[in-house]
Specification:
By secondary structure, this protein is α+β, with helices and mostly antiparallel strands. The chain has a single domain, classed as FAD/NAD(P)-binding domain, CATH 3.50.50. Helix content is 34%, strand content 29%. The strands form 3 sheets. Strands 1, 2, 8, 9, 10, 11, 17 and 18 form an 8-stranded mixed sheet that branches. An 8-stranded mixed sheet has the order 6-5-13-14-15-12-16-19. The longest helix has 28 residues. The radius of gyration is 22 Å and the shape is globular. The termini are far apart. Bound molecules: adenosine-5-diphosphoribose and P-hydroxybenzoic acid.
Length: 414
């Protein structure tokens, strides 16, 4: 088999990349280890920021998101018995995020790719990448009991944190930066109407909790748990009693309902630099991971493939590798911004130590500051509401860079 862009992984990154490439007139083939049903059903995060929502609309995959997604103009932060609001609609030019499950994004992209005649091989596990040193990238994969190969001009590893792409960059060409937090989240999917029209996040002294949603009938809650706990350690009764203890507030109580799923998520920060080796490009979770605290994961994955799709277009049009060779540095500037934002959110919202009252007081002071000072709240709102896409699919996306206000010093004399 041969194609222009070989893609490993049919998550949001791989699917969106193949969609954008198709719109540029570039062929791709996706190799996906799991079955189509598994990929369509996998429950993950659910925040689409306003830039990425705009990209979905602008490239014809936003209709169902606009019909069924839950628009978000603000979020609520609770701490110390207080309710505070960060309203990005008001603070950042009328922006709206959308709560829409990642698996719904995946379904919409799969349906659109199928209508456009995409080549996606499910149950096909990539086992090796050959030919990189000769600039003849080839994916070796297992499919239907046979070993097969896909030769491509460019290879995109959109194969998530546990994929094989990243490991193919030779030692000495790569640096890894990472941090594993000493606690985890339990994600709880509940058959019950959301208790709020907006996301509620709680920096409670018993530990963090969040109330989010998936649809008018389904809520999504999270609680911070010890890293050593397993989902089975959390009976339904224990989940409800802890959620109520952390989230409820005078006059407001969390809706209960049958728990449909409990899953544990580690909190990890991770960056691989660079995100390119010759004609291999890493995108999404294969290159960088953030804790879920800032709702950034999927948005960052989509932002990468925007840059990659445009660089591939330049390459196939002109033969020049200039844009491709800028891919990593363009992405990493944004990736590190998002790393720093999520690390600071994690610092501010999670309970880091139950033996350090100083740390808790400092956290409360920071929460008080960012929810009362307009400049600080605006900064937070900007980070929640935009992935800062750079893409030819949104005509003025270059302008989404935040304005630089620190000009060089002016001469005082003369
Ligand atoms: N061969 C083929 N497919 C593979 C292989 C392999 N060797 N290894 C992994 N995959 C597939 C996985 O089965 C998965 O479907 O790659 C896909 C990677 O998808 P995601 O993990 O969803 O990663 P990405 O597309 O980068 O999306 C990032 O996912 O984890 C969340 O919060 C994160 O929202 C973010 C998003
Ligand atoms: C979710 O709805 O799954 C969600 C929302 C906000 C986050 C993380 C997860 O920060």
């Amino acid at each position: 088999m041969r194609t222009q862009v070989g893609i490993i992984g049919a998550g949001p990154a791989g699917l969106m990349l193949s969609h954008l490439l198709h719109l540029h007139g570039i062929d791709s083939v996706i190799i996906e280890a799991r079955s189509r049903e598994y990929v369509r059903g996998r429950v993950r995060a659910g925040v689409i920021d306003s830039d990425v929502a705009g990209l979905f609309r602008g490239t014809g995959v936003g209709d169902r998101m606009d019909r069924e997604g839950l628009p978000q103009e603000q979020m609520e932060i609770r701490f110390d018995g207080k309710r505070r609001f960060i309203n990005w609609f008001e603070l950042v030019d009328g922006r709206r995020n959308v709560i829409y499950g990642q698996q719904e994004v995946v379904k919409d992209l799969l349906d659109r790719r199928s209508r456009d005649g995409a080549a996606i091989l499910f149950d096909a596990e990539a086992v090796r990448i050959d030919g990189l040193e000769e600039d003849r990238p080839t994916i070796i994969f297992r499919h239907g009991g046979e070993e097969r190969s896909l030769r491509c001009d460019l290879l995109a590893a959109c194969d998530g944190f546990h994929g094989i792409g990243r490991g193919r960059i030779p030692d000495g060409h790569v640096s890894i930066f990472e941090r594993q937090y000493p606690f985890a989240w339990l994600g709880i999917l509940v058959q019950a109407p959301p208790s709020s029209d907006w996301l509620v996040t709680c920096a409670h002294e018993r530990g963090y909790a969040m109330h989010s949603m998936r649809s008018p009938e389904v809520s999504r809650n999270y609680i911070q748990i010890p890293l050593s706990d397993a989902p089975d350690d959390w009976s339904d009764d224990r989940v409800w009693s802890e959620l109520h203890a952390r989230i409820d507030i005078d006059g407001w109580t969390l809706n209960e309902g049958p728990i449909r799923e409990k899953a544990k998520f580690d909190l990890r920060s991770f960056v691989c630099e660079p995100m390119q080796y010759r004609r291999l490009f890493l995108a999404g979770d294969s290159a960088h991971v953030v804790p879920p605290t800032g709702g950034r994961g999927m948005n960052q994955a989509i932002a990468d493939v925007c840059v990659l799709a445009d660089a591939a277009r330049d390459f196939f049009r002109t033969g020049s590798e200039e844009s491709l060779n800028r891919y990593s540095s363009v992405c990493l500037a944004r990736v590190w911004h998002s790393q720093q934002f999520t690390a600071s959110q994690t610092q501010m919202l999670q309970r880091h130590s139950f033996d350090d009252p100083y740390l808790r007081k400092q956290q409360l002071a920071q929460l008080e500051y960012v929810t009362t000072n307009r400049a600080a709240a605006t900064s937070l709102a900007q980070c929640y509401a935009g992935a800062r896409l750079k893409t030819s699919f949104l005509p003025d996306s270059e302008g989404q860079e935040y304005p630089r206000i620190c000009e060089p010093p002016r001469p005082i004399f003369g």
